[in-house]
Amino acid sequence: xxxxxxxxxxxxxxxxxxxxxxxxxxxxxxxxxxxxxxxxxxxxxxxxxxxxxxxxxxxxxxxxxxxxxxxxxxxxxxxxxxxxxxxxxxxxxxxxxxxxxxxxxxxxxxxxxxxxxx
Length: 118
Fold this sequence. Notes:
mainly alpha
């Protein structure tokens, strides 16, 4: 792989390790999780992410790392879109509920202000 491609893959691997570390609360478990997902060892991921010269990158592993990062980012985007949709639904429901309360309050006030018929 070229130096630019290797840099891109390394950044993707670092991103994946950071996400897994957050999820698992352990950097070593994160290396293991990423390694098992892309078909490499824990030690290889660790050395590659840290930039050690001895960790050679082949195209197949690089493609799997990039594909995994893209899949993760797509999943995050779908979750964020879904959350935004749910937030809008909640705000709309709250607005409608608030409007209903004003209509009921207005109707109650109108009947209270109306003269009593005999």
